[in-house]
Amino acid sequence: MLFVVLAIAFVRIIRMSDDPFAKIATSAAMVWIVGQAFVNIAVVLGLLPVLGVPLPLISAGGSSLITTLAAIGIVLSFARHRPARAERVVRPGRMAR
After folding, report:
1. Which of 30, 32, 44, 55 is a plausible cystine mate for 10, CB 3.0–4.6 Å?
2. What number of CA atoms fall less than 13 Å from residue 15's CA on the CB side?
């Protein structure tokens, strides 16, 4: 269920962003992480043959964990830079800061 929550968060970041590169990079990271989780869970349930794919953020393995965390960090940096869609509305009699 946590991978579904992660996928929903990635989709929200994709929809929020105006930058095409941010959208493509975020969707690529989402497909990579969620796809890897799907394959691992399917192997554990016996639906797929053993492939040796680690479960992202859970399974032991330094290089897989580092690359997954780096991808999530890049996506989080895209989420921090929200586009300025509308100018701030100033009420009459007040000055904008």
Report:
1. 30
2. 6
